[in-house]
Write a structure and sequence with these properties.
176 residues; alpha+beta; 6 strands; 34% helix; globular
């Protein structure tokens, strides 16, 4: 299925196609980051790349870790929740546990936050820099059970490229 706005997406119709798609996505991400190390620019570019390349998404973006709360960062999709406590939803669970959250049915997930009623499934990955949580990367889909372990693995590898290619500002007022 193609992206409703751009008409483009990677082929994820089979396991081999999905693996090839994520290899291509990683190459595209590496190309985007070549010569650019600013954290804000890289997060914005990454969110746009993922949103436009992966089929069946209605939201892709970052929530930045600040104390025990997540603050909306660069994203693609409809307007979103601005603040999420670590105690709520898939994003909060990811921030709290530092583990990938693969949610096949958001309505069955305890503490789910319905920023967009059209979302049916979710994948949330931690963004760790030197062992510290800096953000979570959240993907939502209008399809139930849209995400699987291959998605988690492919996106984890792409996020690792982002982390390595980015200078993370360490001044407290600019922490992402």
């Amino acid at each position: 299925m193609t992206h409703p706005e751009t008409g483009t997406s990677l082929d994820m119709s089979s396991a081999p196609a999905k693996r090839a798609a994520y290899a291509l996505l990683q190459a595209q991400a590496a190309s985007l980051f070549a010569g650019e190390r600013d954290w804000l620019a890289n997060l914005a570019q990454f969110a746009a790349l993922i949103y436009n390349a992966l089929p069946d998404l209605n939201w892709a973006g970052f929530y930045l870790a600040r104390n025990e709360e997540l603050i909306l960062g660069p994203f693609q999709g409809k307007v979103a929740c601005v603040r999420i406590p670590f105690s709520r939803g898939g994003c909060g669970a990811c921030a709290r546990t530092l583990e990938i959250q693969l949610v096949s049915d958001v309505h069955a997930f305890a503490g789910h936050i319905a920023c967009d009623a059209a979302s049916r499934s979710e994948l949330v990955l931690p963004v760790l820099v030197d062992g510290q949580l800096r953000a979570v990367f959240d993907l939502d889909s209008p399809l139930p059970a849209r995400f699987d372990g291959d998605d988690a693995q492919g996106l984890s590898a792409a996020l690792a490229l982002l982390v390595q290619a980015t200078d993370w500002d360490t001044r407290p007022e600019n922490k992402a």
